[in-house]
Amino acid sequence: MSTTAYSGTWMTSEASWQYVSDLTPNTTYYYQVRFINNGHTVISIPMSFKTAAAEDGIVVHSIARVLNNVDPVVGGTYANGYHFRFYLTINALWEDRLEFKLANWSRTDGGTMAVANNTKVIVSEQGTGDYNATGTTLTNTSYTTIADVWDMDADQNLGGRQLYLDLFYKIPTGSQGVYTTSFGIQSSNRCIGNDGGPTLLEGGVWQTAC
To answer: pLDDT, tens digit, for every residue of 76-86?
Structure first.
């Protein structure tokens, strides 16, 4: 199929991918691909993509309690504890490591519920209700690496990297009352090049080897 090309400058690449830099956040870009071989030229149909809303940072779109038709049990397990689901966007695609922290739950009269060894976090593209799935058990209240997300994106039609974070909490023995907590989420790049930036794209995704 051949069609009229957009006005602009063609970028030449001998590889099957092309790295593009200096794009503006929250902007839709239109492009076409031109193939030249043995004197024949084929131009693709017009395509588009939208960049993330910002150059960096994380947006938490929603936090929902997931009900599993089982009442929470004090001194129970992940199966009958609490389950919360975060839906978030990592704006910078080259930031491929996700870190999470959760403060100990606090009660107005001074009681607490510990995070350590009572909290499991699972990151995925679809969200999961399976607390036995591969995840990370938090052992403290500091930032903990919970996933390398270089190959995850729940919605490739949107800018940035969309992910689900499922948090499972088993309620410690002796816990009663109303508790509150706070959390933190941050992303980073685990493969930094010599120039202080991300490593070169390989096959359309950021390199996984450091």
So the answer is: 999 999 999 99
